[in-house]
Amino acid sequence: MFDIFHFFKEKKIPNTFAPLRTDMHCHLLPQVDDGSKSLEESLGMLETMKAVGFEEVRLTPHYQVPRFPNKEDDIIRRFENFCAEVDARKGDKDLPVMKGVSGEYRIDSGFRGRIENKEEMLTFRFADEKKGSEKGLLLVELSLHQPYMGIEQVMFDLQMAGYDVVLAHPERYPYYDSHSSELEQLKEQGVYFQANILSLDGFYSESARKKAFDYIENGWIEFLGTDMHNPMYAKALQHAACSKKIIQLIEKEEFENKNLVKE
Q1: What's the pTM value of the predicted model, to 2 decimals?
Q2: Regarding the domain with residue range 22-261, which homologous superfamily does it belong to in the CATH classification?
Q3: Are strands 125-126 and 56-59 parallel, antiparallel or unpaired?
């Protein structure tokens, strides 16, 4: 079934990320953003994610107007159909369980309207009822090219609207350094941070790799995610799973992934 994924062979891959249990950032829902292009691609990526230790996945398609003008109702419908298709096609493959679908929301010029209009956004929650806000954890991202002016106010407004905010991959934003006062301010506001596993292995750049480790050392990273988009990411995830430095990090650090629950 998965012959196009030539990197899935008999080679034993270490289940390095088993302590995390859940991947809470990936783009496996086909044809809704710049992630998976087909069910076959998604099945192959799911197989890799299971091989490296993930028991559960949370799909987080992009919400970004006008590039990805996704609507929550449509994404939920597509997710339900996707789950049924995976069950029908996976055969005897042992794949991660679908925990649900939320989103990765781009904070840009159009995002404030969502807050002002009190639009409901898709979130996920902690298993511990004492953790998290009324509406749950909202995954957001920023531009990879330029900072968003007034980000502290946007985060505050989201928190006042009942969300806990998770900032995706801060290490990838070139305008933040290893000891960014802006990021420190967001941490003081109670914003969670999620680093990309592939950043830790230098997939994006040496700068992103260094900052990812520095942010973890600073105690700023609560979550790790694959940010899986396509088969190239799956192959890179296999490589990351074999990194001694990453293996030691996962064994040493405690991340919140395992404390997430199915909606």
Answers
A1: 0.94
A2: Metal-dependent hydrolases (3.20.20.140)
A3: unpaired
